Amino acid sequence: MKTSRRKFIRQSAVAGLGLSLTPSILKADIADKPKLISKKNTGPLVISTWRHGMAANEAAWKVLSENGRALDAVEQGVRITESDPECMSVGYGGLPDRDGFVTLDACIMDETGNCGSVSFLQNIKNPISVARLVMEKTPHVMLSGEGAFEFAQSKGFKKENLLTEKAREAWLKWKRKSNYEPVINVENHDTIGMIALDKSGNISGACTTSGIAFKYHGRVGDSPIIGAGMFVDNEVGGAVATGTGELVMKTLGTFLVVELMRNGMSPQEACVEAVKRIANKIPDYEKFQIGYLAINKSGDTGAYCIQKGFNYALYQDDENKLIDSDFYLKE
Ligand code: SD4
Fold it and tell me: Which of 147, 230, 259, 324 has the largest count of CB atoms under 10 Å?
């Protein structure tokens, strides 16, 4: 009864549109089709920027595989990169600004839409954990500079010298010419951005960096800006950015990626569209690299960048893989 009634309504609607009732229209049971959401990839999974994402993913996976929360996974994951002195673009060992100061930016966002961030923070090794405490223990989203440092100290973080000998030498070498010329894809050891989907289906994200090497003292990039360097909406998905932050800030990149997914794009389509936005809006974009990563609620992933050379780590189905991203500027 029900079926024939539905069929009748559909036939009337089609007839009302002046269309003939061809067998193919009758067969295509459009009104009854469920939305195409693949369930095969659902959590846990974690995705993060660059090669250093491999080690960070391992730490995140440990949390996720024990039924942990995505928020804990991303914090534990990126702390590995922050604490690694060999990684010269994040946390301890990061390259300093033009005046020789290591200044750090980081942000974190959970499945409830709560978020915290720190910018222009000095002498604290794990800014992501300070950002988390800003989120959890203050009524604010962002603390900066001296205030962020004092807050960290009040929460028991140690004051440490973050400028390693290797980073100091690189700075002294740079000072001989003092040219501010970010090099495309030096980012092979760059900002770490990470998004995780846990077993409960919740998404969280984190992003942390020492920023562009030899930047102006006081420069803050996209990485601590919610919606620029990282954004999560647990109803839709999450995204992170890496590269020359000014381009991401001008286009509010990760917010854009998530909104595009909300409007029906896959993570891959959304990342492509956000890179195209940069190409359409920023005249000299060809001189820079930007990479986006995204995941949606169904566990589909996406990655796209301006130029060849961006890679990312994806841990899923018990396997951690380093993958080359597709890119916009092809010959
Ligand atoms: C910044 N987005 O400070 C960061 C740095 C980065 O590849 O990711 N560079 O602009």
Answer: 230
Does the domain at 45-324 match CATH 3.60.20.30? Answer given as yes
> Is 223 close to ligand 1, i.e. is its CB under 6 Å away?
yes
Q: What pTM value is reported for the model?
A: 0.86
Which region holds residue 317: left if phi is over 0, alpha if psi is between -120 and 50, else beta? left
SS3 of residue 121 by DSSP: strand
Residue 205 in contact with residue 292, Cβ under 8 Å?
A: no
Query: Which of 90, 209, 230, 310 is the best mutation target for the ligand 1 pocket, counting ligand atoms within 8 Å of the beta carbon and taking the most?
Result: 209
The residues spanned by each domain of the chain are: 1-33, 45-324
Q: In this structure, how many other beta carbons lie within 10 angstroms of the beta carbon of residue 331? A: 3
Measure the CA–CA gap between 199 and 43, rounded to whole angstroms: 5
**pLDDT tens digits, 221-279:** 999 999 999 999 999 999 999 999 999 999 999 999 999 999 999 999 999 999 999 99
Burial class (CB in 10 A: 0-12, 13-18, 19+), 326: middle
